[in-house]
Every structure is written in C-alpha cells, then in structure tokens.
Design brief:
Blueprint (H helix, E strand, L loop, with lengths): L1 H21 L11 E6 L14 E8 L5 E11 L12 E11 L5 E8 L9 H12 L7 E8 L2 E9 L15 H4 L3 E5 L10 E4 L2 E7 L5 H20 L2 H5 L4 H14 L9 E6 L2 E4 L18 H7 L12 H4 L3 H13 L1 H8 L4 H8 L1 H8 L21 H22 L118 E4 L5 E3 L4 E3 L8 E2 L5 E4 L2 E4 L3 E9 L2 E9 L4 E2 L3 E4 L4 E7 L5 E3 L7 E3 L7 E6 L3 E9 L2 E9 L1
Parallel strand pairs: 1-6, 13-20, 14-20, 22-28
Antiparallel strand pairs: 1-2, 2-3, 3-4, 4-5, 5-7, 6-7, 8-10, 8-11, 9-10, 11-12, 15-18, 16-19, 17-18, 19-20, 21-23, 23-26, 24-27, 25-26, 27-28
Helix pairs in contact: 2-6, 6-9, 10-13
C-alpha cells in the first residue's frame, strides 16, 4: 500500500508540474486556444468512427481567457486517421445552431484535425496558408489549438472550417431552380459509404457532398451537368471551355497541388463546386500526406509524389484534359511566376515553415511530451517512415520544399537572379479579441527557429539538422502500442497582401540648410524583368500555320520577322528558323519561343504552260513576300502580286527554264516548259 501511495504522489507531482502550462485559469497565459470536450459517458478517448455522434459539451478558451461553452454532438472523423490503432484521432463537433469561432465565419460543424501522420505538424498549415495566398475561393480558415478530451490532454490540433455549403463556407445556392442549380462534389475513386450518393462521369467517380442528401432528380441533374462540363473540357474550344469552367480557380488549384504533390489527388479529398453555371476547382482539403511525406515504395504514384522533380497533377482527374491545352499551361505558369517569392519564402529563414515552428514551438513540444505522441511512430504503410527526431523530420520537409520550388522554377525557366529571394511572411490566422467572434494575435515568439540549410542533392536529405528544434521525446502515452502498418490505402479528411501608406513623419519642419558633402551616388541599375517562356520549351510550327496567344496588357513583338510575325496576339510562321515572340508586362517578360520547322513550298515542282498563257501555282505556307530573280527572263516570268499565295506563271517563249522564286526570303525552284 505504501508503494502505491508513493507512486500516486509522484504521479500527482509530475502532473502538477505540467498542468499549469495548459490550465485555463485566469492567472495562466495560454499559448494557443484551448478546447475541452466532455462526452456524456466520459469515454471519448475510446470513441470509434462506427459510434457516430455522441452527446457532449465543449468549452473553448482563448489566450486572453475569454471562453465559450455549449452543448454539441461529437464524433471521430476521417478514414485512415480513424483506424482503431490510431490514438490521436481527428474529430468533428457540431453545435445545434451556427456559431462563429475565431472570426472564421458561422457554422454548425467544426473539424479538429490531428495531423497524426505528419511528424512536423506543419504540412496542413503550409498548404492552407499557400491556398489563401493564391486566393483560392472558400479556402478553409484554421486555428492552431490544444485539445482535452474528457480531461485527457490530446496534444496540438488544428481547428478547421470543414468543406461544406454555407454563407461563410462554400457559398452556393442549393434551392434555386427547384434545387437543380448549384452543387458541391468530392472526387471519390473507390470508397463506399452508405449515406453518400455517387455519380460517375467519363470514368471519374464523385461523391455528392451538397445537396446532402440529393433527391433522385437532383442526382440526375448533377450527373448530366458534370457530363456536359467534362465533355466540353475534352473536346471544346478555349471559348467553349471558358463558358463551362472558371479558368482562374482551376489554375490556382493546379499550382497549389502541383507544388505540394498531394498523393490523393486522383483518389479522394479533391473538391469541385458548381455555381451560377460554371464549375470551380476547390476548395482545398487534406495535405498531411503530401510534400514528400509518403511511402515511395508503396506504388509508382507514391514514388512520384515523394520525388521533388517532375510534374504530378497534370495527368490526374480533370487536369488530364486541361493540361493538354497550351493556353491553360500558360495561365498556371504565369501564376507560379507571380507568386514565386512566396514559394521561396515557404522554406526560407523567416518564412512560412520557420514562422510556424517559431510561433507554435511550445504546443509542438507538448504534443510530443505532455501528450506523449511519438514523433517517430510509423502509423500506416502509405506514410513516409518518420525519422527519429522532430529536427530531422523538419529538416527533411524544408529541404523537400526547397528542391521542389527549384525544380518548378527551372521547369518554367524563371531567371531566379531577378526575383527577390523571399517574401515577408505572416501567420495566416485571423486576429481579433473574442473567441466567439474572432481569433487572437499570437504572442511574439521568444525562441529561435532552427537553422536549416538546404541539401545540394536533388532529393530531400534524411539527416539531422546541424541546428535544429528542441529534441522532443518519442515516448508514447502509457498503455499504447505501435500497431502493425495497415495495408489499406488511406484517404485522409480533408493573403492577400495588404498595401499600406508609408507613415507620415512627425519630425518638425526646419529651414533648408547646406547639405553635408557626400560620396557620389552610383546610379541604380534598372531591375531586369523576370523572364519566363509563354509555354514550356520551344513551340514548333509549320510554315504558314498560326497560333493565338492569350491576351495580355502589352503587345507582342517578334525578334525575327522573317521567321514569324505577330499581330493582335496572332503568331504566323513564315519560314524555317527561330523567333522569340515577346512582351513585357510589369516586371515580367513573357517569351513565346517559336521554332518554324519547315519552309514554304510550291504545290508543283514543274509545270507546262502555253506561250502567251498563264498557269497558277499555289504557295504552301503564309506568304509575306514573293520575288522572282529572273523576272525579265525571255521564256517565263511571274506576273502575280508580291504577297499572293497563288502565283501566275506566264509563258513568253518556247523552251525550258527554271525560275528561282524567293518566298519570304527562301529560294524555291520551279521548272517551266513553254510550248
């Protein structure tokens, strides 16, 4: 009995040493908001997805100790993250009426995402910060929080707006046109759930998320609409496609997922919504298995997702068709170039990942010490086998992002020397004062971010950073065991730059005085524009062919008008050679690298014409100019205009001759027999 008492006393002392850091008592300052869920039966820690919703209460305490309490229903969410072997599950809680939390808009449902498969806890934070920076409509707001479930500390979570219909969520009209107007879809390749309606179009399978549930008539309308949209994407003209889908949203969604290489992009957690007669891409969801955090030996798709080089999204679901169009590739590449400084800031010192670690260092540490989750635990066979420490996993992630951005910059042929190295980064969470209306500004961090030097190899380095985050315990909560990796393939759940005026000086105005002598100021070199290709690589054109360029605010000019000309956004190939069709817009120079692969030719190599008569010969290819060296020959000559695509040969004197005809400066020979 004495041994038990001593053990209990020791345990109480240990808990009391830790608990004040987490306490919501007004004398204790919280690092991040605290969410306390109390289930009716007190067995929330053992809750399974099959249990569905259970009655519970929630108390949400902000860092200024303001709080909100209410009754909710509560359940396990997700798919692979809901496996029984997963101790740190993700959850959904639902109010009876809509509530606004941390200025994230009103909603009944809220998602608590555990990020259990991501040993850095950062990938969803980075992905959603990037999506907000790109301006992807209806991207979920989020807040880093800590969770207690039936008084058991569960560690660091992210509170999200789940993807769903609502004025402050995905704002679509589910009632217009008798319920046959707008809708929300999730790509779902194979999973079957009893309460979900599925449709299949062009070999792609979608779950109807909204309306929920749809009537048979609504499901039929949605299927026919999706069939029509995909048919147009596959076979329509640019103008027809633009009438069916929102190109801007598809471009932004492409760049987001192409950079992150989210492994599930062809399987699940990929949303599209239909609004006011057009299909939109997004909003984004679920990025813990992305950015190299995948088992490269699981399948060829996972191997491709793990690598930092190569395109990944261009052959998946709707992008399998869209990426066949040069004009779509252009819009996506232009978007990447415009946001290139932000992409670099993701992995740079003081950038997005660095900011995440600095700001949330204490909650991260408590996740692996106070809550006891293991940073090196291998939960499921599709995730990358984690490294031993947080520092090593952090280093791997930073290096992966670095190499991925480098590859994309090289692929898009960006002159990186002319682009700022980084962009100032701020935490993407909303900031206010009351928990029921908005979020609270995170306190200025006092710890230093790890100094992580990018690897010089093409692939991420799996080594410990020389100066790394604080070592975090790999001890798991008492009583837990490491499960055997599941063989099931999982599918996990799913800034605008403010321009301010410079401050006005408060210094008193004084009379001008003679300035002190200073060294001569060296003239500032003009900033060279960022150069990108209009399309990937050099475009091959046949002589005489034309191609239309997407409209820009500045006109294009040709570097070699004898090879190719451009007028009103239309490029015309003239003769064999190369030409750069270029335009400068702002600080970006767009270059349409054009290679004309053949020369103009004549429809006939020889003709027979009667004396005094004419015979036409067609020039194959666009004619800029036609010149006959032997124009005054005694036997035959050209009598057509110098820019006609058909020339007339007049027979002058019986006999044979060879005319040397220069079309666009290229010499063509025509044998002529005059009878």
């Amino acid at each position: 009995m004495k041994k038990i008492t001593a053990f209990a006393l020791t345990l109480i002392l240990m808990i009391s040493a830790i608990y004040p850091v987490y306490s919501a008592d007004k004398s204790t300052k919280l690092d991040v908001p605290k969410i306390e869920i109390t289930t009716q039966n007190g067995k929330g820690v053992d809750l399974k997805k099959a249990d569905g919703y259970v009655d519970a209460s929630v108390k949400i305490t902000d860092i200024d100790n303001t709080s909100l309490s209410d009754s909710v229903v509560f359940k396990v969410r997700g798919n692979s993250t809901a496996f029984d072997s997963i101790g740190k599950k993700s959850y959904t809680f639902k109010f009876a009426k809509k509530k606004e939390l941390f200025s994230m808009g009103s909603g009944k449902k809220w998602a608590l995402i555990s990020n259990v498969y991501d040993p850095t806890l950062a990938r969803n934070y980075v992905a959603f910060s990037l999506a907000q920076k790109l301006g992807i409509q209806y991207t979920s707001n989020f807040k880093v929080v800590e969770l207690w479930l039936d008084k058991s500390f569960r560690g660091c979570y992210m509170l999200f707006e789940p993807v769903g219909e609502g004025k402050d969520r995905v704002d679509i009209d589910l009632k217009g046109n008798d319920g046959k107007k707008d809708f929300l879809l999730e790509l779902e390749a194979s999973r079957v759930e009893d309460d979900i309606t599925y449709i299949t179009s062009n070999g792609m399978r979608f779950a109807i998320s909204e309306p929920d549930p749809p009537t048979e008539e609504q499901a039929s309308y949605i299927k026919s609409t999706v069939d029509d949209v995909i048919r147009t994407i596959r076979y329509g003209t640019k103008e027809e496609i633009e009438g069916k889908i929102d190109i801007e949203s598809f471009s932004k969604f492409y760049i987001l997922n192409e950079f992150l290489k989210t492994v599930d992009f062809n399987f699940s957690s990929v949303f599209y919504y239909y609004k006011d007669g057009k299909l939109y891409a997004g909003p984004p969801w679920d990025y813990d298995l992305s950015s190299g955090n995948v088992n490269k030996d699981f399948s060829s798709n996972y191997a491709s997702s793990y690598k930092t080089d190569g395109l990944f999204i261009n052959n998946k679901n709707l992008y399998n068709y869209l990426c066949d169009y040069d004009w779509f590739n252009y819009t996506a590449k232009k978007l990447f170039v415009e946001n290139y400084p932000y992409f670099k800031s993701i992995y740079s010192e003081g950038g997005v990942i660095d900011t995440f670690y600095k700001t949330y260092k204490k909650p991260i540490e408590r996740n692996f010490s106070g809550a006891g989750w293991s940073v090196s635990r291998y939960y499921v066979n599709v995730m990358k086998y984690p490294l031993a420490t947080y520092a090593e996993n952090y280093d791997f992630y930073v290096n992966w992002c670095n190499k991925r951005v480098e590859w994309l910059a090289d692929y898009y042929e960006i002159d990186t020397s002319t682009v700022p190295a980084t962009e100032e980064t701020t935490t993407e969470e909303p900031t206010t004062e009351q928990v029921t209306t908005a979020a609270v500004t995170t306190a200025e961090p006092t710890t230093s971010a790890p100094e992580v030097k990018p690897s010089e190899t093409a692939e991420p380095i799996e080594t410990t950073a020389t100066t790394a985050p604080t070592e975090i315990s790999t001890t798991e909560p008492e009583g837990t065991t490491s499960p055997e990796p599941s063989t099931a393939q999982p599918t996990t759940e799913a800034s605008e730059t403010t321009v301010t005026e410079p401050p006005v000086s408060s210094e008193p105005v004084t009379s001008p005085t003679t300035p002190e002598p200073t060294a001569p100021v060296k003239p500032v070199e003009p900033v060279k524009p960022v150069v990108i290709p209009y399309l990937c690589g050099t475009v091959n054109l046949m002589a005489g062919s034309t191609v239309n360029l997407p409209a820009l605010d500045a006109g294009f000019v040709s570097s070699n008008k004898n090879v190719a000309t451009v007028k009103n956004g239309k490029v015309t190939a003239l003769k064999k050679g190369t030409a750069d069709i270029a335009a400068v817009v702002g600080n970006i120079k767009y270059v349409y690298k054009t290679k004309v692969v053949n020369n103009p030719s004549l429809s006939k190599k020889s003709i027979t014409v009667k004396k005094g008569k004419t015979k036409p010969v067609t020039i194959i290819g666009k004619v800029k100019s036609v010149k006959n060296t032997y124009k005054n020959t005694k036997k035959a000559k050209i009598i057509s205009k110098r820019s006609a695509d058909k020339i007339k040969i007049r027979g002058l004197k019986k006999g044979k001759t060879t005319l040397k005809i220069f079309v666009n400066g290229y010499k063509l020979k025509l044998k002529v027999k005059v009878k």
